[in-house]
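Archive transcription. Copying these from loose printouts into the bound notebook so they stop getting lost. Printout 1 of 2:
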Amino acid sequence: MAEYDYDLFVIGAGSGGVRAARLTALGGKRVAIAEEFRVGGTCVVRGCVPKKFMVMASEVSHAIEIAEGYGWSFEGTSFDWPKFLEAKDVEIARLSGIYAANLGKAGVDLIHGRAVLKDAHTVEIVGKDQIITAEKILIATGGRPWMPETLPGIEHAITSEEAFHLPELPKRILIAGGGYIAVEFAGIFAGLGVETTLIYRGPNILRGFDDDVRAHLADEIEKRGIKIILGCQHTELKKTETGIVNVLENGMEIETDVVMFATGRVPHVVDLGLETAGVELNEKGAIKVDSLSKTTAGNIWAIGDVTDRMNLTPVAIREAVAFHETVYKDNPQHFDYEAVATAVFSQPPVGVVGLTEAEARHSCPKGVDIYATRFRPMKYAFTGSDERVLMKLVVDADTQRVVGVHIVGPEAPEMIQLAAVAVKAGLTKAQWDATCAVHPTMAEELVTLKVKQSQETNAG
């Protein structure tokens, strides 16, 4: 048997790569991991975590409005963008350091540099004249923002990654895109007082989500002052002395200080040396893997966003665990992608798990029962706010299993985590109904919905 430098070499120290490396090293194997940027990957360094800090910062302005309705008064309130950035960066550095420290404690060798495959068992650390061999290799390089490179003036635009480090808060911003990243950043900048426009080429935001969720959220975020332009996209960006002119295909021209493209992410596979190692890509440009995350090269696996299966951090971590069980514990496992809950930290936020109504109508042979309600949260009773919560249950008409839950409103991400347990367990509508409500809460609506396709109520 050939002698290698390591039993496992991991390319990419994001959440999935780090979990796989640690588990394998703790199991007694020789493991190294290479990261070209900072340990923690997209989620910790330039994704979920810093974005959530930005969301929380931007929600304060709305909280002040609510507080005034309850009798509080404030004078001279202001937001210090540089101070926030400094605090955010300190915390991100701390979290990245924890990830690196945990790798060390597990016995993983951390290599700072870009790893490129030279063959199926060999990687080169670019610029360091370092060649490393490994019996098995795991690719966990994640994804990167995509931009329309052929659009005239695209060099004047930024992506979500640059949005975390803007030197100053703009007065005007236009965000191109209709997915969760675009919607979340629209809420962030609007909440921080920026004049915000969201443009999307599709008929409504959040493609792939339930149609009622999409329509409801679009209405609600417009109430927060965000201007939405649908069915339209850029034809050009023009830099001027006073800003950037967004030239749109409908003839409109909108000048803003910053233009951000949130038009999707693509697997990070560029210049990894995949062909030399026998690793094939699928038709979407992601690394082709089987159900056990093995690539077309016999000793190379891939997990996380680089495979473009379900691009969520917790999923990458679960895929890492399944990889370790399969490869190093002789316990073949694959992650179950059914009924995975997800959240959009828009303002108001969204929480969903399971099937949309359209999906359920295609997959439930005897049809579906829909239970839905819209109401004003009790929290807004004194504020005069017209904001509404949407809650929707999708039920298989035959088995009466609740196969989908969709929530738009305050604390939706927190509620959906617990609702996901019930959906994953296959509980029926009768079992949801048999659960006693907690009053007064928004969540009680989930176990008190009785009328199919219920009309708007007012719980406030």
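Printout 2 of 2:
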Amino acid sequence: MTTPQEELLPATRRALLHRIAVAQAEGRTPSLVAAVVRDGRTVWHGARSSVDGHGPDENVQYRIGSITKTFTAVLILRLRDEGVLDLSDPLEKHLPGTGAGEATIAELLAHSGGLAAESPAPWWERTPGSLRPELADVLGDKPLLHPAGRRHHYSNPGYTLLGALVEEVRGAAWEDVLRREVLEPLGLDRTTGRPRAPHAGGWAVHPWADVMLAEPAEDLGRMAPAGQLWSTTGDLARFAVFLTRGDDRVLKAETVREMRAPAAPVEAADVADGAAYGLGLQIQHRDGRLLVGHSGSLPGFLANLTIAVDDDVAAVVLTNCTSGPQPAGIGADLVRIVAEAEPRIPEPWRPLPQADASVLELAGQWYWGTHAFALRLTSGGGVALEPLSGSGRRSGFRANGDGTWTGLEGYYAGETLRAVRRPDGTVSHLDLGSFVFTRQPYDEAAPVPGGVDPEGWRGIS
């Protein structure tokens, strides 16, 4: 349910309205509708339209194009969490005979399977799906353009294969599985494969004249898992909450966090742009914040879903023209406006409910060689290790229940941290993936690799 818009300050609401008004006017689109989510609830909805007195609300459907891919990725992650498949499995293991089976499921999710970007001609987005009844028609004679796993190359046929994999494993149509396993549990009853009134019509706007041409709305057939869906700002706002927090009825929070992590090789231009791709989600570093989500386009429609997880703010932008507005930039701006005008209020500091004395004695300063680090206790028996000054390797660590911890991110992800004790029970040093951390730089009482010069520290004589 949409919460009162008064939860945002009047100046913030006006700034949001101004941004979409400029986008609709300068982008020359028949209509543009947007929503903002904060703290897990929709707090703003806005619309601009070329028809006087008609502003689309949060229940009007627009075609969302490739945001559909994120829904397909959710279905695949559900299969993985159930143990039906592993992301490292080659597609051939579960869907043999495609000619693209050497790519793994993870590579297809991250668009690094080496497949072509599009299906063979005629252009699939503007022709009936009945022209491509079989996977062979979607893939063509040469489905692979690059070695699997070597580069990120966006592929619509790749997500067609993932949809076919869902159908093969579940024994039901992709859309039926999606409705049963994702849409219904999340209450997304206005997200459908075919448009349901009220819905917007798709238009092309002439680049040099203020006139329009109706675009066809084709059923994409086999290509549906790559871009078929119609949805609303209301439904996509709820979907954004799910992609931020998870929902145990669909995917747990740990799995949606995995979807948001980079999973594809990054090229030089992507590094410069601050862009990456996860498991069905686009990742962008913009305006000093990390954004995740997905954009979509089909003839007559543009769409974007943008989430700033750290700010707990998300935006949805939908419009019904083939080109003109830039929904990804608009979505990022809507997030920025709210995040900067009304910064997130942190939760109150609270002490830990309890602290293990054997862990508490590890807190404080440690040295890896001459690099100074601090170890801090975190909730749930975890710890965090970070450099005391400047940049450097840092990570949180999850307690394993046996006196060791496992790294959660960065260089130390998956690595084991343990405290090594002397026979009398006192702590000698920390061992982190063979790195020795000591209480003093190059502590001669600890087993520092290579030993410590017996002459000790000295100046220049």
